[in-house]
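Annex B, item 7. Sequence and structure tokens for protein A, then protein B.
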Amino acid sequence: MRPTLTFLNTALKEQIVAEALIILNEVGLEIHNDPLLRLLADHGCRIDTQKKRCHMPETVVRRSLATAPHGFWLYDVHGRQTHDLSGNNVYFTPGSAALNILDYPSGAIRRPVTADYIRFVKLVGSLPHIASQSTAFIPSDVPEQISDSYRLFLSLLLGEKPVVTGAFTVESFTVMKDMLLAVRGTTENLRQKPLAIFSCCPTAPLKWSGVTSQNVVDCSLFHIPVEFISMPLSGFMAPVTIVGTLVQHTAETLSGIVISQAAQPGAPVLYGGSPAVFDMRYETTPMGAVETQMIDCAYNEIGKYLGLPTQAYIGLSDSKALDAQAGSETAMGAMLAALAGINNVSGPGMLDFESCQSLEKLVMDNEICGMALRLIRGIEPKEDFPSLPLFKEMLTEGHLLIAGHTRRHMRSEHYFPGPVIDRCNRSRWQDEGHHSNFERAHREVERIIAAAADSTLPDQIKKDLTRLMTAEAKRYGMTDLPKSKGDERNF
């Protein structure tokens, strides 16, 4: 039996949705995108053009929910299925768009560069419990205007797993879409086998900017999956209560679904978010707070109640170092997310309120994710009945270490973490150098990157990607793309 976790009963979910529908109809949303406002008017919404306000009647929302898919598959660069984003299937993805990276060995937080991103892509490719890449952090050695497309470029060029990404400008979307098409070949192939998810974020409270709303439209037209990242802050830019925050999150996310389905009925979406409680003492938004994690799990229940696949930023930490706080907040979030059945869990590797990525933390989090995935497989009998023969064998032999039952079921029944998790006895730990968790994690990072195989993406596709990226960089005055030490790529 698969263990599960729930916070909301059916009556409460129905009431939260009903309240959100009233908000969408009566209060409406501010949308700074005139063509989209005209499209929504044609779709049945009431538009106040002077105030750029869109009122979405319940009938429009319900019609949009009816056309939104209940799930979708995700594929790697070679077209192999990697995800079934439906039901209670759970997949882990590194957190996205960090401004900083945690440096080893100094332990300092610094701005990342291209060399860091290349190491990240190589590392993610070999982590078995991290199902997809993300455009995890922003290299500081390229112009800001190309930072979105550049991260996707490196991910597609050097990695093979699908990518969770996003565009922070309208202009970025075109070249990013062209990169996806370069890999897939045709628009129809990209529609049939999506290899990227774009994050699109409404602004709390109840607002869509021109950039993000247009990204929703553009993605929908090409059937590129979108995850809606509503970010209400409880007690600051949302009601202080969890239920009040859920009402706002529901309204903002439903508005995104209306936009996507108005642009293209049947466009794939994830009911996601990155809400947080607001800690008034420090004026921060703690992602590791238990209430933040409760909101994530609860809105996941609402998304599934509405028949949609889900996403959440959970399984990360607000700590500034790889320490006990980082481990406890991440592990609790990852376990809750797995038990709740959140389909796409974004967060591994992240520190400092979503602003910092750590490669060492990522290999540690890979093990946490592995444990969480083992947890939700639950407990099932495996040749355990009748029990008498097994116990007789144990009494006769004095152990069951080499019993047939042990050999058949040991690896599927027990999760064996890698060397980043210390399970040896004290004397062996001392003999092997009594390394800290941070040290063990760094050694594992270096081992994995050194052993990483090159991407097997065809050379012609790599050339096409490089051509697209080089042309985009030249638009902003950059004649050569950065190279890292030992990087023999021919840009």
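Protein B:
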Amino acid sequence: MIDRSEQELKMYPDNNWDLMENNEVGAKAAGGTERYMSFIYNGGIPRELLENVQIIPSRLRDLKEDKIRIWFEHNLPNDPESMKGLKEEEQRKKYHKIVFLSNWQYQQFMNYSNIPYSPQSTVIEGGFEVDDEPLPTKPDINEQINIAYYTTPHRGLQLLVPVFKHLAESDPKIHLHVHSSFKMYGWEDRDKQFEPLYEECRNHPQITYHGFTEYYKLRELMKNQYHIFAYPSIWPETMCRAVLEGMNFGLVCVHPNLAALPDTTGCINPFMYNGSLDPNEHANIFAQILVQAITALRDNADTVNNILLFNKMYTMQRYNTRLVQNKWANLLKDLNNQYATEESRKFPKEELILRVY
């Protein structure tokens, strides 16, 4: 079980976290998968709907024959854990439901893992604690524009840092805040390969490297201090919580149209761009769009503010806690009714195939 902050424990005193599926990865991590699992079990869904259910978050360790089994997929079809759990039809038959994070992701599994388009599968997008307060007044953009990157380094930091350093040569009023580390997943050893990049950040006067930042502290910085989420993603996201939180907290989001990003954001961000597999070409395109975002903040503040208000409303409507937890509650009610007894939940028997020679 991941360590809980005091704030989180106070927010959800009636939680059901003791019922969560545990494995050696999730026990150390606090990434998107773990946050979503915590969200399902934070007390918003009645305990009686969860007690007879095993929700497996993309990592097959063991299956409980007396439970209603839900495979909850967070990865891509080529992920070893996903291939282990979903590749074979005989394995898939052991699940009563397969839940995907986004329609784009579901389509990938249909295309590359031969997952059938059937009622066994469904999509329930990720919810999070959306902020429904009015957008706060952030630091004066004429004094400094605060640009943030707050996901793991392998997703695009190596493109962002050189682009930012280039822009900073002619713009002393931009500052980059980097909240990035594999410590989020308990994989500190993987930070070693990015240490030179972190050191570049530490040594630049217009970059602050924060490392790993506890989630609720980061939320406050996003809400009250940061103006732009700069995300030149090179990682095919199956759903992107980071960009959604940026939209909800009033950040101008600059990102490519890669993988599930258009699906997740509804294609409404005007600074979403068409990227490239070539790193240099991608960096040049990203630099142009990031400059456009900075210029828009300075020269068209009213227009940008309307965009930010629309983005906030979009995330509040599509990803709010009540909506997403209701979808889960309805699914669990149906499954509990359909598989009301332990006998009905047992693994399907292998079919006896009679061969005549």
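Comment on protein B: The chain has 14 helices and ten strands.
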